[in-house]
Here is the input.
Amino acid sequence: MATPSGKRILLGISAGIAAYKSAHLARLLKKAGHEVRVVMTDGAQAFITPLTLQALTGEAVRTSLLDPEAEAGMGHIELARWAELILIAPATADLMARLVHGHADDLLTTLCLASQAEKVMAPAMNQAMWRHPATTRNARQLEADGWQLLGPAAGDQACGDVGPGRMLEPEAIVDALFMAPLFKAPDAAPAEARPAQGLTVTITAGPTREPLDPVRYLSNHSSGKMGYALAEAAAALGATVHLISGPVTLATPNSVRRINVSSATEMAEAAHRLAGQSDVFIGCAAVADYRAANVSEHKIKKTTESDELTLTLVKNPDIIAEVARHRSGATRPFVVGFAAETRDLEAYAQDKLARKGLDMIVANDVSQAGLGFGSDSNAALVLWPASSEPHSPLGRRALPAQTKATLATAILDCVLERLEHSDTASSPIATTQNPKASSQDPQ
Ligand code: C5P
Here is the structure.
């Protein structure tokens, strides 16, 4: 993962069993390009060692307020000033209570009092402790004091109980952080002037790699250029953009959060995680249709007995169709697919639009020289259901050959028009009420 510019994050760890997940969280934050310094409470060290966090962050871990050696380096006030964000994960019930009362009896609470940084915590505790009126009061007070609380999630607990109190998974914490004001790029134009301001757009891009053995994989020639152009254009229009990228050699566009994946399975996992938080999901990736049924643990050797090698492949999940099927009310994004075809462009695109349950499809003819795969230019035909009725006519817009950058903006214009239309119409996405959608567009 990479964000446009790394932030200075102070990761506070308190004494919950979920502390073991904080190691993974520290790793994800580092991988995203942030500077991470860790402060652990005494109790946290019973669950995970400072050495683990030191190895993962490359920084000495601070555990004590009264450590002359550490204070001689970066004193606690200096550390409080250094942080742009304080993230406490896990935050125990006791730590929450102490923060509510402004205690400063250890390094972590002192830093929280002394720092002007943005403050976020991921509570984790037994479900009865979380439900206790005292914790409910404390959570409300912390929010009133400016803390952002992430979670907790509900489910099985380490103590055997089931209920709310599980720390959010590290990936979900990192996703949520990206939505925090600190992570937003400074606006070039006033917020209201940017048409996608307030929208979250998730885009898949590039190829996937399906391993066969430790040294070989199946993949395709997708360059990722169209998906990256869409990500750049969406960010320029003011959207919060998550770019789930297969292996490509492109630079991450400014203000875009990139999540690197390799296989279709990894891409599907990231897509499902982010789709529920997105207003728009655009599947631009060239996802491998099949993967090896069994990935060989060792390099597959040539044999002298036969000139043939048989590989058994199994179908990969159709990521976009799965996202589109998720019709859980407000959490389902507007879903846009791509169709790269060499013949019968419109017919195949129409079929894909219906079969995958998409809200829009961008079709391109990849047989045309100089356009599509690997090139910097592309032309497209955009189709969408003009009505939620089955077999209703399709809205249609032909976008002529142009650079992928300008085409990306034109595609996003189509998406924004449809979203605007669905905001004013009674049904959530596809409706007939807007004559603009189908009649205004060039045939
Ligand atoms: O079926 P086909 O691969 O032609 O569909 C293309 C569209 O479906 C693209 O939007 C692509 O990103 C998406 N797709 C997917 N998961 C797959 C295959 C395709 O999301 N396994």
The chain has a mean pLDDT of 89. The chain has two domains: 1-184, 196-291+312-437.
